[in-house]
Fold this sequence. Notes:
Layout: H1 4-18, H2 20-23, H3 26-51, H4 59-75, H5 80-102, H6 107-115, H7 117-127, H8 129-132, E1 138-139, H9 146-167, H10 171-181, H11 183-188, H12 193-219, E2 221-222, H13 224-227, H14 230-233, H15 235-243, H16 250-266, H17 272-287, H18 296-299, E3 338-349, E4 352-363, E5 367-371, H19 378-385, E6 393-398, E7 401-402, H20 408-413, E8 416-418, H21 431-441, H22 448-461, H23 477-490, E9 495-499, H24 507-524, E10 527-531, H25 535-539, E11 544-549, E12 552-558, H26 559-562, H27 566-580
Parallel strand pairs: 5-10, 5-11, 8-9, 9-10
Antiparallel strand pairs: 1-2, 3-4, 3-6, 6-7, 11-12
Helix pairs in contact: 3-9, 3-12, 3-15, 3-16, 4-5, 4-7, 4-12, 5-12, 9-12, 10-12, 10-21, 15-16, 15-17, 21-22, 21-23, 22-23
Bound molecules: adenosine-5'-diphosphate and magnesium ion (MG).
The site of magnesium ion (MG) has 3 residues, from helix 19.
Amino acid sequence: MSRAAPLAIxxxxxxLVASVPAFAGSYISxxxxxxxxxxxxxxxxxxxxxxxxxxxLGHYAxxxxxxxAFAILLTRGVPLVPCFAAGIFFGxxxxxxxxxxxxxxxxxxxxxxxxxxxxxxxLLANNFDGLTRGSxxxxxxxxxxxxxxxxxxxxLAILTLCVTLWLMRSRFGYALRAIRNDEQVxxxxxxxxxxxxxxxxxxxxxFAGLAGAIQAWQFSYIAxxxxxxxxxxxxxxxxxxxxxxxxxxxxxxxMVLFASIEQALLTKxxxxxxxxxxxxxxxxxxxLPGGIxxxxxxxxHPVLSWLSRESHFEVKGEGGPAGERLPLSxxxxxxxxxxxxxxxxxxxxxxxxxxxxVSLTIRQGEIVGLVGPNGSGKTxxxxxxxxxxxxxTGRILIDGKDISQFRADEISHLGIGRTYQIPRPFLELTxxxxxxxxxxxxxxxxxxxxxxxxxxxxxxxxxxxxxxDRKAELLSLQQKKALELARALAAEPKLLLVDxxxxxxxxxxxxxFVKHIRDIRDHYGITIIWVEHIFSAxxxxxxxxxxxxxxxxxxxxxxxxxxxxxxxxxxxxxxxxAEAK
Length: 581
Ligand code: ADP
Ligand code: MG
């Protein structure tokens, strides 16, 4: 579809809605008004859920807080505009305050904690009578404001869609989608989690706060049990899930459908609503997981597939492969310089000491093989260096800086890149997006546009040139591993940690991989630690071998020397040949 078409359709739809008060009566206008409020709630809720992957069951608390802030100030004679501003401000402030405790939690725990926020607010509103007049509620001066309120919420609804579109094509939005896919990997890729999470909740709450304020203005009466109502709180969630959470028009389509069903039922039986919400969620989960707009016939339709897209970033210019040269600035190699030093680093899981008093030094431009039997602590050592774990005792220094207390994103910005033994690409994102995230958030810090444009070069380098727009979940295991290497390289690391890539590769593929490892060091000055079970692969390229056994370093020597070491031969090579079978 050309770009003009969606724009023309949007403008036409907005004009159509804008004409409702002129042509339809106040009853219809009030219904459309309520639908738009619900849409703003559903869509702003979905920034946190659909984009970032956090299920917030307490979104309506911010709406109620906005309504109360507005009503309290208005009844004290404050002019309208500051009252609306207060609705936004206090919604946002509440979100900022709760984000500190809430974002210490993940998954179900986060969802349950947010569930408590709405009843808590109801309790507070009931008990702070001086401010809220308790359960009597606040009556606002009667004024017939449906028309101005209608246009205000229409503007807000359009703005909500614009913010969604921005999220779906911006660097900020990609941070959220990376967090949704794998928060830990996102942090290791250089995304500082808390500011993104808190900012998204605050953004979403400020829209809810304004929606609440507009609703209070139009209602002229608010009370704790209507503003902080758990039954109502589920409506935007049901709507977004029905249409398609995380899609540009998902919450809109869902809310329009949902409000229509609700309207049809409301005249008959009000109490049916909660049952209908439950039923809708169950049916969607069973028959259309992901919502209506993700249905196969829409996703595969030549024109409508646009509706199923999870991001709307358009790559400008040539995005394809551009030869073997990677757009990395070669780093000068000073063989004396220590890139990484571990000093007595120890890490234990309960009583299991996975890394035991490890001391080692890696110099710039080295390719070091890190070997040892399964469970000897290789991956755990990588996790310590990349900041997934902190050492229990001992220190880890990068370029002389003690990083033991650094977050993973800070470590990534020091130039540490890695792959995972069990590959962890961002599964719901494409090859191009995976690489671009590594590049724009990693040490290289190029813009998202530039990162998207040059992603093809990295993809081609690791043999994924033709698969740029394929979702990572559709790749084979080896392709996922290749993608991880591309994502790590794109960040312009100084030190690259490679965790078992060769198993499952053919001899020819191993030779290509070895060539890449050498090339990465020789041409770009990147230092490499390579964990590998396939010894024949390591042998072709490493300068030095560090051997771990039960978490401790048992040998650290140039390759040919290590291979003559009795202990190494019996612990490592014995195990390795056994495992290779
Ligand atoms: P390797 O990569 O050398 O095969 P690992 O570093 O994965 O070894 O594991 C070292 C030891 O630490 C093993 O005994 C493993 O069971 C344990 N271990 C690793 N990760 C965890 C974890 N997240 N929780 C508990 N134990 C772990
Ligand atoms: Mg491992």
